[in-house]
């Protein structure tokens, strides 16, 4: 399902725990069947975007095209040739975004010799008054509509604040470039049948929200609680940001980022993510053993294969929590952020075709995929209760 990214965020913690206990009792799906289907990989031809240098405070060493080590050899190739769709590359909605007018900043010195900067004119006795024109922040143009329902209160302001907040954190921590501006098309739908018709993909009819790379539109199935609606919206806004600046990221990392930043709450001059908000669900979804086969399974799933349920009820939700936990682990410290930043930078240079993320992680994460699998498993079995401020 390369045209859609989706959200199944409407999950009660208790129900999740029960569902995941049932799912985990089935055991982790073996990776051997998928490994048997693996085809030796050659780099797929893809339009190449301009190389993007890390813009954040941390830099990523070049990823050498060296043979993969350890668990990477078990992983099915993600770089198989596939039809290239222009909608699966970068969104390029900057042209549709409305540029903000420059902001006038007043600079002056008061009687005590203190220099002031303000968007308000100075008092009459100010000295050295100058007016400085500062370009506005990158614009986010929100076009929201209700298909069969009234829109939530303060939708425009909150959507812009959330988009800019998540964009800032992705830039500051992962070096994701900030576009000159972007346009968000959002449609809220109440009726289940109307939502299924609008989404157009049967397997996503029960989802809470979707982002389509084809028409660059977010669709949210309206719920009774506004905070749930905004959590779903943040999830889908993250998909839109990935489409805008990174490209067709492998689905497990795309959904993991969306789950992580779907938990982002704006406030004051920044925001925060409550990492341990769903500890019970994470514990129930933790992989068995050393996590190697589970990590292989998660990273190898392509497109609609991530969203299917073929073993037991709750299987899809378990994948969401595992993808979220992988990103939460990588976002925990500098070495993890550098490894994740390496994946995003590599994808941005070839945005149309999902890269082999396992190769980049194996090369960029200290200890390779073996250590990453072990730490990911430990992280899920004993999730932290910290709240991360950004």
Order of helices and strands: EHHEEEEHEHEEHHEEHHHHHHE
Approximate strand percentage? 15-25%
Overall pLDDT metric: 78
- The rounded distance between the terminal residues' Cα atoms is 33 Å
**Assembly state of the chains shown:** single chain
Which stretches are low in confidence, meaning pLDDT under 50 for 5 or more residues running? 10-88
Protein name: DUF4124 domain-containing protein
Pfam family, one: DUF4124
Domain DUF4124: 104-140
Keywords: Signal
Question: Secondary-structure map with pairings?
Answer:
Layout: E1 4-7, H1 13-24, H2 32-36, E2 103-109, E3 115-118, E4 127-134, E5 139-146, H3 155-174, E6 181-189, H4 192-199, E7 209-212, E8 217-221, H5 226-245, H6 251-262, E9 264-267, E10 270-274, H7 279-285, H8 292-300, H9 315-330, H10 334-348, H11 357-364, H12 368-381, E11 387-389
Parallel strand pairs: 5-6, 6-8
Antiparallel strand pairs: 1-7, 2-3, 2-4, 7-8, 9-10, 10-11
């Amino acid at each position: 399902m390369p045209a859609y990214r989706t959200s199944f965020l409407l999950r009660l913690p208790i129900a999740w725990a029960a569902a995941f206990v049932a799912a985990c009792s089935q055991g982790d799906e073996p990776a051997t069947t998928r490994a048997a289907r693996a085809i030796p990989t050659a780099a797929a031809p893809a339009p190449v975007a301009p190389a993007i240098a890390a813009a954040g405070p941390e830099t990523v060493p070049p990823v050498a095209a060296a043979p993969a080590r350890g668990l990477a050899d078990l992983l099915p190739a993600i770089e198989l040739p596939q039809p290239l769709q222009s909608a699966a590359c970068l969104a390029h909605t900057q042209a549709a975004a409305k540029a903000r007018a420059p902001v006038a900043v007043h600079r002056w010195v008061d009687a005590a010799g203190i220099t002031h900067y303000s968007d308000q004119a100075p008092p009459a006795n100010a000295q050295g008054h100058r007016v400085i024109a500062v370009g506005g922040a990158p614009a986010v143009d929100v076009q929201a509509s209700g298909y069969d329902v009234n829109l939530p209160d303060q939708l425009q302001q909150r959507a812009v604040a959330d988009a800019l907040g998540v964009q800032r954190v992705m830039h500051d921590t992962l070096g994701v470039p900030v576009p000159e501006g972007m346009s968000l098309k959002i449609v809220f739908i109440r009726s289940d049948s109307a939502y299924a018709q609008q989404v157009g993909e049967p397997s996503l009819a029960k989802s809470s929200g979707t982002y389509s790379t084809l028409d660059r539109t977010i669709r949210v199935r309206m719920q009774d609680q506004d905070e749930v609606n905004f959590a779903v919206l943040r999830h889908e806004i993250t998909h839109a940001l990935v489409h805008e600046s990174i490209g067709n990221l492998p689905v497990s990392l795309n959904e993991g980022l969306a789950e992580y930043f779907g938990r982002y709450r704006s406030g004051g001059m920044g925001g925060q993510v409550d990492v341990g908000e769903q500890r019970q669900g994470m514990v129930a979804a933790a992989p068995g053993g050393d996590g190697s086969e589970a990590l292989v399974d998660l990273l190898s799933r392509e497109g609609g294969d991530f969203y299917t349920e073929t073993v037991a009820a709750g299987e899809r939700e378990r994948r969401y929590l595992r993808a979220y936990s992988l990103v939460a682990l990588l976002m925990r410290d500098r070495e993890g952020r550098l490894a994740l930043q390496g994946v995003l930078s590599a994808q941005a240079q070839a945005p149309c075709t999902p890269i082999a993320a396992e190769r980049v992680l194996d090369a960029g994460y200290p200890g390779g995929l073996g250590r990453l699998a072990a730490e990911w498993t430990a992280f899920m079995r004993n999730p932290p209760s910290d709240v991360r401020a950004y």
